[in-house]
Amino acid sequence: MSGTAEIYDAVLRPGKLELLRGWIAHQPWFDGEPELLEQVTAYRFVDPDGEVGMESFLVSDGARTFHVPVTYRGAELPGAQDALVGTLEHSVLGRRWVYDAPADPVYVAEVLRVISHRDTAADHLAVADGTVSPSPVNVRGGGDGASGDSEAAAAPEVIRLISEENDAESDRPLIGSPGTLSGTWQSADGTHSAVFVVVA
């Protein structure tokens, strides 16, 4: 298990979804109406050094589901201006710089580790009362890819538009297969599973 992520009872300005909608609207993989996007669920990883927050959102416009991992930092990430989602004010932690996670080396290292070690997402610790709850998304790493690439040589490709197709005859990676990060989650219309990240 990937540790425990601290969850604060905090006020955020702007809210996470508001920030994401504004950024997603300008991404090449999105061609819908950003105001329709609503959060379905999210999962987290933990930075071993405790400096960078990592949260991966599943958001839906009612017809499609998108996977949007971000990182939260207490200062700007040098050289990553093009990957800046925006900034928000956190009532406990102060200003946070929010980045598209694939551009953040802390996220890249952690997602590769989770995949290689067949690890899971982090549990959630509510800082206010100390209660711990499991990740709302059952995330699993599929182990090292069949190519035998090492973590150092691998590059994670984040799947943006989620597909639940799991057909070996298609050109999509199988859920749970080596070199993938997959997840299962619940929504109002049932249980869903999909691949989130593929190691190229």
Automatic annotation (TrEMBL):
Recorded GO MF terms: ATP binding; kinase activity
InterPro entries the record matches: Mak_N_cap
One Pfam family it belongs to: Mak_N_cap
Lineage: superkingdom: Bacteria
Domain Maltokinase N-terminal cap: 23-104
Alphabetical UniProt keywords: ATP-binding, Kinase, Nucleotide-binding, Transferase
UniProt KW ATP-binding keyword: yes
Name of this protein: Maltokinase N-terminal cap domain-containing protein
